[in-house]
Amino acid sequence: MGRRVLSVVVTVVAVAASVISSVFVFSTQGYVPASGSFTATWWSVLGFCTGIAAAVMLCWRHQWPELVLAIALVPPLCFRSDALAALIALAALAVRRRDRLLWIGSVPVYVATAWALFGDANRHPDVTIAGQIVGKQFSVVQVIATLVLASVMMAVPLTVGVVRGMRDTLAIRDAKEEELRAEMTRRAERTRIAREMHDVLGHRLSLLSLQAGALEVSKGPATAESAKTVRTTARQSLEDLRQVIGVLRDGQGFEDRGERGPHPEPPQPTLADIPELIANARQAGLSANVTILIDDVGGAPALLGMTAYRIVQESLTNILKHAPGTTAEVSVRGGPGNGITVEVVNPVPATDAAGTGGAGLTGIGERVTMIGGNVSAGPTGEGTFAVRAWLPWDGTNLTG
User: Fold this and answer.
1) Strands 384-391 and 374-379, how do they pair?
2) φ, ψ dihedrals at 77, nearest 5°
3) How many CB atoms lie within 10 A of CB 246?
4) What is the DSSP secondary-structure string of 186-252?
5) Pairing relation of β-strands 37-38 and 327-335?
6) Among positive and negative, which fits the CA dihedral 302, 305, 307, 310?
7) Distinct helix (H) and strand (E) counts, the chain
8) Which of 22, 77, 271, 365 could form a disulfide with 51 if both were Cys (CB 3.0 to 4.6 A apart)?
9) What is the per-residue pLDDT across 160-219, written as a single tens digit (0 to 9) for each?
10) 378: which strand partners?
């Protein structure tokens, strides 16, 4: 709003100055030195009218700078009127164009300015303004001084226009860069959400598949409990899937995520949730030997806890998919200063000689690298598949 008001004020001042300049030139052209009276001719009246028209056209100098400049050049070149409107129009052209057209347009503006100054300098000494600067008598010095003064007068609007144009260009570039950064942030967040959903849904659907297989062969009281687990897991998976589709579909609703948004992000898992994760896997039929020795579980940084949880979750998911019926060895150890070491090892079945790696292991590597840790995953020489990761616990880069 402030910038718009300033633009209106500048336009009013520019038009008013051009009108006053045209009035002054018109009055000096009709001045009769002998009697001190004023006599207008049709030629001076026509020049005055074109000068006023050029002044009014300055209102649209930023919309059509080329057209306004062409109109503003008519009074000084054809009627030897003032060139102020042309100089103002040149500044507007410099804002929009900084190419060959600007320099081509500068030539007639310079000629018009020098011609107008030279005409004013050689009017009657009582009414000349330029003559006070370049001299009132025609001479070589007057001509040179007129050309120099014209150069200075043209350099001012050129400089102002170029500086303003560069400032506007930088502002537009900054706005585009800010928009690009915002879009990259949204894409990164959508990628993160997709990775989270991949881990969560992959794990739950693996449990669901295992429970469904158990239902096919089970009889007796265990059937009801297995059916309940299948129903609960399926409902949770559908809720997660519905949430991620609502957020990621064409980015709709993504900006509304947060305290007031329709899709508040659920609490992220921590180190304290790992035992429950393993218990759910055991309930689904996974055999696991677990060792968890962590100092100050409640003080673990949020990103560290979530990363460790996802490593265990993805490892158990791969075991359920590729090595069902095997026994997993899960170890989570560490504390502040020493970091957290996560190991998940399982035998490789003969039917899966390639190991139990999946696409989720790539996501694990990205998570661990992001917080400054290291991870390895692959078959060992002992016929097992091992996922081993070390995560730093020093309080840096782990608060996001």
Assistant:
1) antiparallel
2) -80, -35
3) 13
4) HHHHHHHHHHHHHHHHHHHHHHHHHHHHHHHH--STHHHHHHHHHHHHHHHHHHHHHHHHHHHGGGT
5) unpaired
6) negative
7) 12, 7
8) 22
9) 988 988 888 888 888 888 888 878 877 776 676 666 666 666 666 666 666 666 665 565
10) 386
